[in-house]
Specification:
Elements (H helix, E strand, L loop, with lengths): L6 H9 L1 H20 L6 H5 L16 H29 L1 H6 L1 H6 L5 H30 L10 H29 L3 H21 L13 H6 L3 H4 L3 H24 L5
């Protein structure tokens, strides 16, 4: 097995090609299905949504963008992106360390940092595939579902943030596993649990008079700037990207120095 250069990146992509494809297809199809419901959604139906759920974007169907910011990009799709990052990041280092395969990998001429970063790059490629699948689904259903008021640039901006959100939770899971040596299941559980917790915080904070807490969650930077309506929010995208970089850098720093023999 050769692991020089970018071979670990391409091998990881090849080994995970089916997993990445399934995640992308499932996320894209779910987004398409719920976006297609827009013409059938009535004001009466949305009036029955509890007021406590308004923080999740479920209180506005007056425009296509308002609807999409609710059940599609405000609820279902970001949670799938979170779970993708948690599941894939937990496999990056933790799965091989738990099975003992990591020692075999590191016996080849590849450093710890390169191994981690190339595998994380493959995770990032999977996140891009998910974002691309969702964008393609939105453009495909746009005219038929009366979503024409949302421009292609708005969809591209929102799916960019979706990709960055998946990347952030992937960085968290990868960094956590690399830094601690926890099992794959534990890394996934901690990352996914934290993701759901901050998702709930972002949605419910305004209802408890603590709207400022939203700025502490990645979901605010993912959708708070309403990219479907306003296009790319450079500052928000930069926050998500910078947080991912910090997490993966911290995990790499610790992984390089950690005793893997314990």
């Amino acid at each position: 097995m050769t692991t020089n250069g970018g071979a670990m990146f391409t091998k990881t992509l090849y080994d995970n090609r089916r997993i990445f494809t399934v995640w992308a297809l499932a996320t894209g199809l779910l987004a398409l299905m719920y976006a297609a419901f827009y013409p059938q959604v009535s004001a009466d139906a949305m009036a029955s949504v509890p007021e406590s759920m308004s923080g999740f974007g479920l209180d506005d169907t007056s425009t296509a963008a308002g609807y999409l910011q609710g059940p599609v990009f405000g609820l279902l799709v970001p949670l799938l992106a979170t779970f993708y990052g948690a599941a894939t990041g937990a496999r990056t280092i933790s799965a091989d360390e738990e099975s003992g395969y990591l020692d075999l990998l590191l016996a080849h001429p590849i450093g710890r940092a390169r191994l981690l970063l190339q595998r994380f790059a493959a995770l990032a490629a999977g996140a891009l595939l998910i974002g691309g699948a969702v964008l393609a689904a939105m453009l495909a259903v746009r005219d038929g579902a009366d979503l024409g008021s949302v421009g292609a640039g708005g969809f591209a901006a929102q799916t960019l943030n979706l990709t960055l959100l998946a990347l952030l939770f992937g960085a968290l899971a990868t960094g956590l596993g690399a830094a601690t040596g926890l099992t794959r299941a534990t890394v996934f559980g901690v990352t996914a649990g934290l993701g759901v917790a901050v998702f709930a915080l972002n949605g419910f904070a305004p209802q408890i008079g603590a709207g400022g807490l939203r700025y502490l969650t990645p979901f605010h930077y993912y959708i708070g700037g309403e990219p479907l309506k306003n296009g790319v929010q450079v500052a928000d995208a930069a926050v998500l990207a910078a947080a991912s970089a910090v997490l993966i850098a911290a995990g790499t720093w610790r992984f390089v120095r950690r005793d893997l023999g314990r």
